[in-house]
Inverse folding.
C-alpha cells in the first residue's frame, strides 16, 4: 500500500510538472466540420446553457447574438433563458465569485473567449477543450473526487458524469528520472521510468512502476467506459459544445471570412489594373 | 507686397500665389524628385512601412473611441469592440495585424539598406533617423501591447520593466517611474495609453518626416550603389533618375496591391497566425496573482529577448575573452597614443565589470546591456562598414555568405525567443548571439577584405 501511495505521489508530481512544461497528454482532434454546422451549434448552445452557465458566465455574449446561429428571440427566451433575463442581456451567472472561490478554490473563468485563450502555437484551443471535457476520471485522492488527464488536479468536477456513466482509467506515464542507488552500490544514473496507474470506476488507484529499456517520454491514457454507448453520446455532446464555445469566442469569424473573399477578389483586380498602369507609364523609360 | 507669380491656374493658382511653399514641396518631394530608375523588389518596403503607419494611425484613432484605459475595463472594452461595435473586429484586426506587418516591412526595409549599403556616405543621417524610427516603433508597440490588458500584456510589461530595475542604484527608481506604481497596474495602463496614442506617435511622425527630408536632400541609393547625381544632363537632372511622380507612385501602387494581398490574407483568414501575432494567453484577463508558465514577447522582439536570456554566467566569461580580443585588434589598428590608452582602459574596465569578483556586474544586467547593444548595433553600420563599395553586387562573394549567416542567426534567435529555454536551445542561442555580434563588431575588418568588383559609372537597367 505504501508503495502504491508513493507511486501515486510521484505520478501527481510528475503530472503537475508535465502540465507546467506544456507537455500534456496527446490531444484528440475536435471534429471541426461542426464549427459551421447550425444543428451542432444550436445543440451546443443548449448544452452550454444547461451544463456550463450555472457556474461559468459568458459576459461578452448577448443572448440575441444567437440569431447568428439560427435561433430567434422567442426560441431563445423560451428554451434557453431560465432566469429573469431578457434577450438583450448578456450571459451572466447568479453565482458570486466570492462564493465560487470558497466552493471550488477559485472562481470558474468566464467562457466568452475560452477557446481563443487556450490556443497556443502547439495546439488549437478547440482540441484542448474537447479533450479536457472528455478527460475526467474518478480519483479519490482529489477534493472533488475527479481528476483530469490534460489538467491534473482540476478544480472542476466532471459535469457529464451522469450521462457518461462510470469509466475506468489507465494512465501510463514515462519519464526520464535520476536514479540514486543505495550507498556504495554504483553511481547515480538516468533511467526511463514507466508508471502505470489504474483507476477503477470509484477512483481507487493502483500504481506500478517499472524501469524501461527504451520508450518515449510522455503521458498516454485509456478509458474503459462501463457503458460504451453512453460515453459515445457524451463525445458527441462535447463536440457540439466545443463548436458552440468556438463560435462564441469569435462570433464575427464567419463574417470575417466571407468579407475576406471579396477583399481578396478586389485586390486581384487592383493588382491587374496596377500592373497595367505601371506598364503603361514605364513604357518610355529605357 | 504683391502676390507670388504663379504658373498655375484656378484655385491652385490662387493658393500658389499666396503660399508657394506648398507646390514647392510637391515638386521637391514628388514631381521633381529624381529617383534612380533601377529600383528593384527591395525598394517597395519603405512605402509599405509608410502605408502601415497610415493604417495604424487611422485604425488607432477609431479604436481609441471605444477603448477604455482602465484596468477593470480595458480587457472587456477590447472584446466589446470585437463584438458590439459595428465593424469593430475589422478595425481591431487592422491594428493588430498592422503592428506585425509594420515590423515585417521595417525589417525588410533595413535588410535592403544592408544589401546595398544605403547607410554609407552621404546617407548616414538618413540611416540614423531610420534607426531612431526603429527604436520609436519598438517603444510604440511595447506600450500598445499592454493596452488589451491580457495575461501576456501584463506579464510581458512586467518582465520588460523589471529589466530596468537591474540597473545598479537608479534601476528601481526608473522602474517605478515607468510603472507609476510599485506594481504594473492602473497607473501603468493609463500612462502607457497616453504614451501610445499621443507622445510616441508625435515623435514617430516627426522622425519619418526627417527621414524622408534627409533622403530627398542626398537622393536615393540604388541596387548598384551608383551616385546618380554625379551624371546629370544640361538641366542638372540625373541621367539615371526619373521623377518620383508619376513613375514610382504607379510602381508603388502596383506593389501595394501585393502588400495588401498578404495583409488581408492574414487579417481576414488568420488574424492570430497560430498564436504568433495574437497570443492565446492574451485572451485571458490580466491576473497579477497568476504567472503564466511561459512568458515571451511578441515575435518581433524575440531575437533580442533571446540574446538577453542567452547571457548566462558562463557566457559572460566568453564575453570577457571577446572584449580582450576586440580590444587588442583595435589597439593594433589605431596609431594615436591617447586612443590606445583609451582602448586599454575600456578593456580593463569591461573585463573587471564582466568577471572580476567583487566588481563584476550581475550576468542579468549584462544581458540587458547586450540586448540594448543588439538593437543599437544597426545604428553604427555607417561607421562599422569600411567597404570601398556600397552594393553587395560589387563586394566579394563571401560577404554575401556573411550577411546570410547574420540573417539566419537573427531568425534562429527569433525562433528560440518564442520558445521556453532548454540547455541545448540556450547553447544554440549563445552561438547565434556570438555570430550576431561578430557580424557587427568585426565588420571594420572583414568589410574591407577580399576582392571588390569595379562599380559601373551608370546604373544597370533593363526596360520593362
Amino acid at each position: 500500500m505504501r508503495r502504491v501511495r508513493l507511486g501515486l505521489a510521484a505520478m501527481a508530481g510528475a503530472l503537475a510538472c508535465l502540465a507546467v512544461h506544456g507537455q500534456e497528454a496527446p490531444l484528440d482532434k475536435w471534429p471541426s466540420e461542426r464549427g459551421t454546422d447550425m444543428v451542432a451549434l444550436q445543440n451546443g448552445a443548449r448544452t452550454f446553457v444547461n451544463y456550463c452557465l450555472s457556474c461559468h458566465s459568458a459576459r461578452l455574449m448577448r443572448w440575441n447574438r444567437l440569431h447568428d446561429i439560427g435561433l430567434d428571440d422567442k426560441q431563445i427566451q423560451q428554451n434557453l433563458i431560465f432566469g429573469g433575463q431578457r434577450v438583450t442581456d448578456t450571459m451572466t451567472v447568479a453565482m458570486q465569485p466570492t462564493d465560487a472561490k470558497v466552493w471550488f478554490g477559485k472562481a470558474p473563468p468566464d467562457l466568452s473567449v475560452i477557446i481563443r485563450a487556450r490556443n497556443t502555437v502547439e495546439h488549437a484551443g478547440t482540441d484542448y477543450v474537447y479533450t479536457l471535457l472528455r478527460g475526467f476520471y474518478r480519483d479519490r485522492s482529489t477534493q472533488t473526487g475527479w481528476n483530469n488527464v490534460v489538467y491534473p488536479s482540476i478544480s472542476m468536477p466532471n459535469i457529464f458524469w451522469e450521462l457518461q456513466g462510470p469509466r475506468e482509467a489507465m494512465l501510463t506515464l514515462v519519464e526520464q528520472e535520476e536514479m540514486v542507488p543505495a550507498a556504495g552500490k554504483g553511481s547515480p544514473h538516468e533511467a526511463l521510468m514507466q508508471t502505470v496507474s489504474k483507476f477503477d470506476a470509484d477512483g481507487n488507484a493502483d500504481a506500478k512502476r517499472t524501469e524501461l529499456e527504451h520508450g518515449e517520454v510522455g503521458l498516454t491514457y485509456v478509458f474503459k467506459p462501463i457503458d460504451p454507448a453512453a460515453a459515445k453520446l457524451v463525445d458527441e455532446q462535447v463536440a457540439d459544445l466545443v463548436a458552440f464555445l468556438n463560435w462564441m469566442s469569435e462570433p464575427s469569424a464567419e463574417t470575417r471570412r466571407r468579407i475576406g473573399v471579396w477583399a481578396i477578389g478586389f485586390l486581384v483586380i487592383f493588382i491587374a489594373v496596377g500592373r497595367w498602369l505601371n506598364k503603361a507609364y514605364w513604357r518610355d523609360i529605357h | 507686397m504683391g502676390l507670388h507669380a504663379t504658373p498655375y491656374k484656378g484655385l491652385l493658382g490662387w493658393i500658389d500665389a499666396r503660399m508657394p511653399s506648398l507646390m514647392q514641396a510637391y515638386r521637391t518631394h514628388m514631381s521633381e524628385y529624381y529617383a534612380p530608375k533601377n529600383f528593384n523588389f527591395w525598394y517597395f518596403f519603405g512605402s509599405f512601412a509608410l502605408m502601415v503607419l497610415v493604417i495604424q494611425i487611422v485604425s488607432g484613432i477609431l479604436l481609441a473611441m471605444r477603448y477604455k484605459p482602465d484596468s477593470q475595463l480595458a480587457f472587456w472594452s477590447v472584446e466589446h469592440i470585437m463584438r458590439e461595435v459595428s465593424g469593430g473586429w475589422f478595425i481591431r484586426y487592422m491594428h493588430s495585424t498592422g503592428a506585425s506587418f509594420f515590423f515585417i516591412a521595417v525589417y525588410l526595409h533595413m535588410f535592403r539598406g544592408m544589401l546595398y549599403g544605403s547607410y554609407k556616405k552621404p546617407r548616414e543621417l538618413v540611416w540614423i533617423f531610420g534607426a531612431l524610427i526603429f527604436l520609436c516603433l519598438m517603444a510604440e508597440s511595447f506600450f500598445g501591447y499592454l493596452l488589451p490588458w491580457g495575461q501576456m500584456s501584463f506579464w510581458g510589461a512586467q518582465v520588460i520593466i523589471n529589466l530596468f530595475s537591474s540597473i545598479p542604484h537608479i534601476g528601481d527608481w526608473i522602474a517605478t517611474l515607468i510603472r507609476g506604481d510599485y506594481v504594473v497596474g492602473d497607473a501603468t495602463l493609463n500612462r502607457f495609453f497616453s504614451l501610445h496614442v499621443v507622445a510616441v506617435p508625435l515623435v514617430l511622425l516627426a522622425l519619418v518626416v526627417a527621414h524622408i527630408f534627409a533622403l530627398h536632400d542626398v537622393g536615393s541609393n540604388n541596387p548598384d550603389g551608383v551616385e546618380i547625381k554625379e551624371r546629370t544632363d544640361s538641366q542638372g537632372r540625373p541621367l539615371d533618375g526619373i521623377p518620383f511622380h508619376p513613375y514610382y507612385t504607379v510602381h508603388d501602387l502596383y506593389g501595394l496591391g501585393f502588400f495588401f494581398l498578404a495583409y488581408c490574407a492574414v487579417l481576414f483568414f488568420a488574424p492570430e497566425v497560430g498564436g504568433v501575432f495574437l497570443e492565446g494567453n492574451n485572451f485571458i484577463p490580466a491576473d497579477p496573482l497568476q504567472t503564466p508558465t511561459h512568458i515571451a514577447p511578441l515575435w518581433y522582439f524575440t531575437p533580442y529577448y533571446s540574446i538577453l536570456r542567452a547571457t548566462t554566467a558562463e557566457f559572460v566569461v566568453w564575453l570577457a575573452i571577446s572584449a580582450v580580443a576586440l580590444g587588442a585588434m583595435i589597439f593594433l589598428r589605431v596609431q594615436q597614443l591617447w586612443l590606445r590608452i583609451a582602448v586599454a582602459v575600456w578593456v580593463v574596465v569591461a573585463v573587471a565589470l564582466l568577471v572580476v569578483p567583487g566588481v563584476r556586474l550581475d550576468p542579468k544586467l549584462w544581458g540587458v546591456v547586450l540586448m540594448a547593444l543588439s538593437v543599437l548595433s544597426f545604428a553604427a553600420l555607417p561607421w562599422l562598414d569600411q567597404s570601398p563599395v556600397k552594393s553587395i553586387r560589387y563586394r566579394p562573394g563571401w560577404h554575401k555568405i556573411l550577411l546570410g549567416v547574420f540573417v539566419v542567426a537573427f531568425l534562429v534567435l527569433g525562433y528560440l525567443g518564442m520558445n521556453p529555454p532548454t540547455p541545448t536551445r540556450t547553447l544554440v542561442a549563445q552561438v547565434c548571439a556570438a555570430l550576431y555580434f561578430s557580424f557587427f563588431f568585426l565588420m571594420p575588418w572583414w568589410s574591407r577584405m577580399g576582392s571588390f568588383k569595379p562599380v559601373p559609372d551608370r546604373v544597370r537597367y533593363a526596360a520593362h
Observations:
- Residues 254-286 of chain A form one domain.
- The interface with chain B takes residues 20-22, 59-60, 62, 65, 109, 112-114, 116-121, 125, 249-252, 255-257, 259-261, 263-264, 267-268, 270-271, 274-275, 277-279, 281-283, 285-286 of chain A (CB under 8 Å).
- Strands of chain A lie at 58-62, 90-91, 136-138, 146-148, 167-179, 189-199, 205-212, 218-225.
- The two ends of chain A are 90 Å apart (CA to CA).
